[in-house]
Amino acid sequence: MLGKKRPLIGTEVAVLFDNIQRNAFGTAVLTGFSQVAQSKEVTKFILRCIEVGKKHITLFSDKLKESDLPVPMTWDTDVTTSTTYTFSDKLMMYYTSSLITLSVGYYGTGIAQSPRMDLGAMYNRLSLEIQKLSEDGANIMIENKWLEKPPMATNRKDLAKGQWD
């Protein structure tokens, strides 16, 4: 665990490569969304997601570079300069939330596919980071009535207090 890192195995390379590509796709889409979002709150959230995605791309790329492996290109140059309102903020937030949800799943796959401790720790840390992002996005959607508050477990203590007030 504290000794020399072993070389990446094939599945680790594939998962790192795929996570770079998925994050590159996501940041390109979100860059377009950030240019057309109407709400400052939505724009700010999307820009935050782009920053996180780019940071994750860098971390995954560094792992491949450590093993002298090629890193896939990003799609930043494919984003147009259009600022024409194309999609509703509601749709863009739903799509952004879906991308975040997919990332949590793919990072879980990264943990499962890698016996290397440093990769598992990295995926766990990044999963927590994007889960916080997901919660923030869901709160924006709930505040704007774009998403209903999900059903929640009954709080029995609050119910009991209500009987004696």
Sheet bearing the most strands, described? Answer: none
CATH-assigned fold name: Ferritin
Q: At the first level of CATH, what is the class?
A: Mainly Alpha
Mean pLDDT: 92
DSSP strand content: under 5%
Low-confidence region ranges? none
How far apart are the termini?
Answer: 57 Å
CATH level-two architecture: Up-down Bundle
Care to count the β-strands? Answer: 0
Task: Supply Rg.
Answer: 19 Å
Shape, principal axes of CA atoms: flat
Estimate nothing, just give the exact number of structural domains: 1
CATH superfamily label: Ferritin, core subunit, four-helix bundle
Mind explaining what this structure looks like?
This protein has helices spanning 10-36, 40-66, 89-113, 117-143, 156-162. With 165 residues, the chain is mainly α. It has a single domain, classed as Ferritin, core subunit, four-helix bundle (Ferritin), CATH 1.20.1260. Helix 1 (10-36) runs antiparallel to helix 2, helix 1 packs antiparallel against helix 3 and helix 2 (40-66) packs antiparallel against helix 4.
Task: Report a brief summary of the structure.
The protein is mainly α.
Topology:
Layout: H1 10-36, H2 40-66, H3 89-113, H4 117-143, H5 156-162
Helix pairs in contact: 1-2, 1-3, 2-4, 3-4
Which features does this protein show?
68% helix; 5 helices; mainly alpha; 0% strand; Ferritin; single chain; 165 residues
